[in-house]
Design a protein that fits this description.
With about 350 residues, the protein is mainly α. Helix content is about 70%, strand content about 0%.
Length: about 350
């Protein structure tokens, strides 16, 4: 498979991020009291379903992560993931902290210990609240990265199709038990989220190796998961927000995205492959990191001066600009210094297990 960038994935990633931003600004903010104004109840009837951008993120992550892992070098894989995650994330933590301290809104609090632990991205492992609610997905992704890193180190990537099958099967089993309702889905990847990562991995395998009947069976398992998970999760969402979520709408949305990923995996013509989508792709991560709590704080300050929908649109445009600035002023300049540092601290070779000779 070519090493060229998947511009169509950049586009889908951007759409997923924008879905989450709109979900937060037009539904979550006023429903949970983070930003009581502007109220957009008539729009929230529809935009409540845009949380599924998270599902799409996880599928895309499953696809993209294997691009970094395919060379089978654990050191390079670790460094590539750290370079991807941390520069923009540190900037996000700093800017969100500055906004909380400066704007002094009762909904948003911060302590030194919370700030320092959040810088590690490991707050989910020690029960510390994230500075941005959106950070919970990074903790889920980090655990997935750790799993793939272990497979790379142990030279087990050849068993990836079996892992995908296992994850999808146990996720489906888990969704049919009370276990699915008892776990905090914002901390645990199972059973709600691991299946989406597995679907992304299957799409990568098809793109890299071509379609075969075994992958066809995995696709069927993936479709079953994408149909069933929304039914379970919609009931949980109803409990949190006190409003109905149509499982049918969620299922259709999942299947549309699943179909798009299938076309990308099977297509030889580069459907939607346009190099300009690269610019949308690089906005995605900083936009996701920065938009939520700072956006709510802006709403709380400005809603009395700017009409509701105009305020939402202006805030989204503002964060597009900020995301671009973070990319060119933070992510790009820090890439090489951080890479040199990580190469230095990981320079000692790590012994890998070897099979015993007969």
């Amino acid at each position: 498979m070519s090493t060229e960038r998947f511009y169509e994935i950049d586009l889908l990633r951007f759409i997923a991020a924008l879905m989450v931003v709109i979900f937060h600004y037009t539904f979550v903010g006023y429903m949970l009291g983070y930003a009581p104004e502007p109220r957009t109840d008539e729009l929230g009837i529809y935009t409540r379903y845009l949380y599924q951008g998270i599902n799409f993120f996880f599928v895309i992550s499953g696809f993209v992560i294997l691009l970094s892992a395919r060379d089978g070098k654990p050191r390079e894989f670790f460094i590539s993931r750290a370079l991807r995650l941390y520069p923009a994330y540190w900037c996000g933590v700093l800017l969100t902290s500055l906004a909380i301290i400066t704007l002094q809104q009762v909904q948003f609090q911060i302590s030194w210990s919370q700030f320092l632990i959040n810088l590690t991205l490991l707050q989910g492992s020690v029960g510390v609240s994230p500075l941005e609610s959106a950070y919970w997905t990074l903790w889920i992704e980090l655990k997935f990265y750790a799993l793939i890193l272990a497979m790379v180190w142990l030279k087990l990537l050849r068993f990836l199709p079996w892992l995908c099958a296992f994850v999808l099967v146990i996720s489906l089993i888990g969704l049919n038990t009370s276990y699915a309702q008892s776990l905090d889905p914002f901390v645990s990847g199972f059973p709600h989220w691991w299946g989406y990562f597995a679907c992304g991995c299957v799409f990568y395998l098809i793109k890299a190796r071509g379609f075969c009947w075994q992958y066809g069976l995995l696709i069927l398992l993936g479709i079953t998961f994408c149909v069933h998970q929304p039914y379970v999760f919609s009931e949980m969402m109803k409990g949190w927000y006190g409003v109905e979520f149509s499982a049918l709408v969620l299922v259709i949305s999942n299947l549309v995205f699943f179909s798009l990923m299938s076309v990308i995996a099977l297509s030889k013509t580069g459907l939607l492959r346009n190099r300009y989508f690269y610019y949308a792709g690089v906005l995605t991560y900083p936009l996701y990191l920065l938009h939520q709590n700072i956006g709510y704080m802006f709403f709380n300050v400005l809603h009395q001066y700017v009409p509701g929908y105009w305020l939402i649109v202006a805030t989204i445009i503002f964060f597009f600009v900020v995301a671009w600035l973070v990319h060119i002023w933070v992510e790009k300049p820090l890439q090489q210094p951080l890479k040199r540092f990580l190469l230095f601290i990981t320079r000692a070779p790590i012994a890998r297990p070897h099979a015993e000779k007969a």
